[in-house]
Specification:
Layout: E1 11-17, H1 21-29, E2 37-43, E3 50-54, E4 57-61, H2 63-66, E5 69-73
Antiparallel strand pairs: 1-2, 1-5, 2-3, 3-4
Length: about 80
């Protein structure tokens, strides 16, 4: 499953970061690395971009960028 497929309020663990070059480096520099848990805070009104909570801070990604990140959904406790 990719990050852009998650719904608002869902959490997941990052498995793989796709892409290459500057985009991949920027995503990694934001702390979105393998093994990190992310929470989808909300989507913008037109569904692009989406706001994530990563390591306690808010990050916005375009849906096109989020589609390059493979995740495993976390089951709610």
């Amino acid at each position: 499953m990719v990050l852009s497929d998650l719904r608002q309020g869902q959490s997941a663990v990052i498995e793989k970061i796709g892409g290459n070059g500057a985009l991949r480096r920027r995503i990694l520099e934001m702390g979105i690395v393998r093994g990190t848990e992310v929470y989808v805070e909300k989507y913008a009104p037109l569904k692009d971009p989406l706001e994530l909570i990563v390591k306690g801070y808010h990050v916005s990604l375009r849906v096109e960028e989020a589609a390059k990140i493979t995740v495993t959904p976390v089951k709610p406790a």
